[in-house]
Q: What sequence folds into this?
């Protein structure tokens, strides 16, 4: 029996549907696994490749669900895109920043604190305004501008009431002086296959497409390409969404996404990203 | 294909190419449903999971 490609999901977003439809057009049968109903027996000697595929695209919308399934599949000898090591770094903003810095990738000035007192020490250095981001999560959720002492105290007080201990790790970043946009790039292997500007909507300062941000084509300069590929390599590589900001001191990478959403990039006329993703998976299957 | 919303009895239009895991929303009350089964006879829905704090990219 020939080798196969699988896709693990827990919700079919626009992106998963696009990948599945593209595979149908290519005559490529991919094994779909619904993570919500999985029950994985750790000691099982089953042929998991026959169930999930030899190479699996991890596309869970829930980060922790996806991460743990990836770790399990890897333990059974399955090649997962992206590997759990990459997911672990990209799923945590502290680890991402540390990996980017270690690789010499320019990134916004960042402080990590563990209490209100620590946050104010960071603000003594950064000044107002600054940005507070949760270390897990996506779509700009819980990202807050820290404009002054009073609002900062209120935001920290709210965070302290949340039950998840990860929300009490305070990741404070400089408010980068950027145009009202950032740049989303999509990296597949060793290539940047898409780059688009993301403009924030009138209703929100954040540029996330999930927040209503709109996209436009962005020229891929040498500086952008080199920085983005270096960032992708820094987290371990694979299929990634690397987000950068244009600052007065050049391009800064502020995030690397492990389960990249690319509807916005496609809307701006980017290349056929599902085709690129499947091509990358096919290449891994053949190895 | 059409089905009824369990909440408000509104008509929900189902895509011809529905895939398990896909989300459909009731146009009347906005409730999200997830496609749970696709058979030649039709499509089954269940209430969609609530957005988790680890959801995203």
A:
């Amino acid at each position: 029996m020939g080798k196969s490609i699988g896709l693990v999901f827990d919700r079919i977003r626009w992106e998963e549907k696009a990948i599945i439809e593209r595979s149908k057009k290519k005559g490529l049968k991919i094994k779909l696994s619904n993570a919500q109903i999985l029950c994985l027996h750790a000691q099982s000697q089953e042929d998991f490749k026959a169930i999930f595929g030899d190479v699996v695209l991890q596309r869970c919308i829930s980060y922790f669900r996806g991460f743990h399934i990836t770790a399990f599949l890897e333990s059974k000898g399955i090649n997962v895109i992206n590997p759990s090591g990459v997911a672990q770094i990209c799923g945590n903003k502290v680890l991402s920043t540390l990996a980017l810095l270690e690789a010499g990738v320019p990134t916004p000035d960042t402080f990590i604190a563990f209490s209100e007192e620590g946050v104010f020490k960071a603000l003594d250095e950064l000044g107002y305004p600054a940005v507070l981001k949760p270390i897990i999560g996506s779509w700009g959720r819980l990202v807050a501008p820290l404009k002054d002492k009073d609002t900062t105290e209120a935001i920290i007080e709210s965070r302290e009431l949340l039950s998840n201990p990860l929300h009490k790790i305070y990741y404070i970043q400089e408010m980068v002086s950027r145009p009202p946009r950032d740049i989303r790039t999509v990296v597949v292997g060793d290539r940047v296959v898409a780059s688009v500007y993301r403009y924030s909507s009138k209703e929100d300062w954040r540029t996330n497409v999930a927040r209503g941000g709109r996209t436009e084509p962005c020229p891929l300069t040498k500086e952008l390409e080199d920085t983005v590929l270096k960032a992708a390599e820094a987290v371990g590589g694979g299929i990634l969404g690397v987000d950068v900001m244009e600052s007065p001191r050049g391009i800064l990478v502020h995030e690397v996404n492990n389960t990249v959403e690319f509807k916005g990039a496609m809307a701006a006329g980017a290349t056929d990203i599902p085709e690129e993703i499947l091509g990358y998976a096919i290449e891994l299957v053949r190895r | 294909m059409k089905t009824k919303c369990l909440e408000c009895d509104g008509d929900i239009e189902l895509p011809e190419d529905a895939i398990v895991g896909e989300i459909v929303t009731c146009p009347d009350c906005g409730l999200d449903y997830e496609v749970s089964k696709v058979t030649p006879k039709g499509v089954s829905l269940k209430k969609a999971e609530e957005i988790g704090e680890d959801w995203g990219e």
